[in-house]
Amino acid sequence: MFFTKLLVDDTVFLRNMNCKVPPSILEADTSTDTVVEERAKVSLRCSASGYPPPQVSWRREKSKDINLGSVGNTKNIVQRVEGEYLNLTQVTREDMGAYLCIAKNGVPPSVSKRILLQVNFSPKIKVANQMVYAVGGSEAVLGCNLEASPRPLTSWIRHDDVVLINNHKFEIIEKEEDSYKIIMQLKIRNVSDNDFGHYKCLAKNTFGDKEGFVRLIEQITTTTTAMSTIPYRVFIPIQRVVTESHTSEGTTIDKKEYGAPTTNSLRDESQVVSSEKQLGPGKVESRLEDETQQRRTVDQRPKNAKKSTSGSNKSFFVPCLVLYAAASFNLISNYLLRA
């Protein structure tokens, strides 16, 4: 009471003397570091003096948002709060961190105080990769994402219930991302058959404990065989081409030539097969029978038969002999009939 009356009297005196005094934080009336549980309510106070009377404002360290609570389904998030009091409703782990109260009245320098807000909650573990593959003899890294406050006790336990420690085989690494976020990693060197199996990451504090599981699986390497490069032959049907050559005596001699590609090439055969697919079953069978009959007729013809020519003496003599024999037969027949 006396201290408050003294401040009032000093303010009146300074006003009358037209003096200006820079702001200062009154520690006795200002909040200190605060620890609360998640979902609780928090009210922080920052009291300052000076002349003219300073204005007090609040903001978070690293320019983070201030969550003043939800209004219906919408969060009331701001960057700055004006006033001596900062009221937070239902704080969460995201609200954890440092808050700055700043007092200024236009007379330099401005003053501020850092108040740390800690929100306690039980550990929570998330495992991004529950199955990790590794080849024998290589190095494997298992990981767990941990959130907890206060900072928990952590450990890694192997599938045979052995608590792992740092040595030439295992290395335990912990990386802090935030005041309550930790990345737990277990590095396994020179992976062997006994290392494959499940591993457990464990975290425990005064509010509870949590565990996560990661399984180390052997990766089977597959070998590929090269395709055979042995050369192979491709047979293309060849058709004989017979040509006629004239001699000096006027006769023709058959001349055979080889090496000309047949008209029924592979492409033609594919076209015939595709056209046969469009026919009905009965038409295809009858067509096959006709083709088989034609092949038999061609095979029965003499292979060395020669074509007759109009200039040959033999081809001219034979028809005349036949006509003469027919005429003689008619004469003898008429004579016998008359007799």
TrEMBL record:
Residue ranges, compositional bias (Polar residues): 261-277
Bias-annotated ranges (Basic and acidic residues): 284-302
Superkingdom to which the source organism belongs: Eukaryota
Any one of the GO CC terms: neuron projection
Membrane-crossing residue ranges in chain numbering: 316-337
Principal location class: membrane
Pfam families, A to Z: Ig_3
Region feature (Disordered): 246-311
Compartments it resides in: Cell membrane
Sequence ranges assigned to domain Ig-like in this UniProt record: 23-112, 123-221
Record keywords: Cell membrane, Disulfide bond, Glycoprotein, Immunoglobulin domain, Membrane, Repeat, Signal, Transmembrane, Transmembrane helix
PANTHER family: CTX-RELATED TYPE I TRANSMEMBRANE PROTEIN, DPR-INTERACTING PROTEIN BETA, ISOFORM C
Name recorded for this polypeptide: Ig-like domain-containing protein
Source organism per UniProt: Trichonephila inaurata madagascariensis
